[in-house]
Amino acid sequence: MNKAAVVIGGSGAIGSEICKRLASENYNTYFTYLRNQVSASEMEQAFPGYLHGVFCDVRNPEEVEAFIDRVKKECGRVDVLINCAGISGESLFVNKSVDEWKQVLETNLFSVFYSCKSVVPIMLEQYSGVIINVSSILGTFGIPGMEDYCASKSAIIGFTQSLASEVARFGIRVNCISPGMIDTQMSVGAQKQIGKSVKKLIPCREFGTAENVADLMEFMISDKASYINGENILVGGGLGRTLPVS
């Protein structure tokens, strides 16, 4: 039986690359999308029979539960859960609305709780499973105008560590991947505004790619990472962790 994987937020740059890696490893992969239906269809066509896009508003717990129930019904199991749904808020705190705050927290953080709430019982029955939550380097330090985003990503790290300590004895590993400045559509605005300044702070002197994140994910779900649990691993080229020098 092929292993089954679930990707929450699978139609974006990082999510789609992760989905493709899973499909190439013969995982029967189900992923959610909200607005990128064209991207979802193209992904399905590229890996027929292995990639299955499902429209789902991950801010809605009932929709997430129904999505996971479908995977369980069709596959009988869930071996891997990847949480990488995310949006960013980029207004100064004094201008930030309650609705904007809620939308970012519900998309980035609440969706992680909803998916884990539905998947963990399945993994407990199997006595096996791997969960990877995608946080951000901005979960480890702040930046003006992104209080909601930083708060959500920081909370994901704490959630990951707590859940890992609770379910490890049942054969379930839970880890976190925190990308730095990755060259995606989401980061285009930030690159235009502060890209040159940020690049000078990255010891590797370049932005990362979705492939860099997927490379780590591919390792983290493998048996080679069987003793790695409750960790937050950064993919940021050294940003925020070293003192760059020229």
Structure summary:
The protein is of the alpha/beta class and 246 residues long.
Strand order of the largest sheet: 3-2-1-4-5-6-7
Low-confidence stretches: none
Quaternary arrangement of the chains shown? single chain
What is the number of E strands? Answer: 7
CATH topology tier name: Rossmann fold
Question: How much β-strand is present in the residues?
Answer: 15-25%
Question: Portion of residues in helices?
Answer: 40-55%
Radius of gyration: 17 Å
- Biggest sheet: strands, sense, closure? 7 strands, parallel
CATH architectural designation: 3-Layer(aba) Sandwich
State the secondary-structure class.
alpha/beta
- CATH H-tier superfamily: NAD(P)-binding Rossmann-like Domain
Distance between the termini: 53 Å
CATH class: Alpha Beta
SSE sequence, one letter per element: EHEHEHEHEHEHHE
Integer average pLDDT: 91
Count of discrete domains? 1
SS field, number of helical segments = 7
The global form is globular
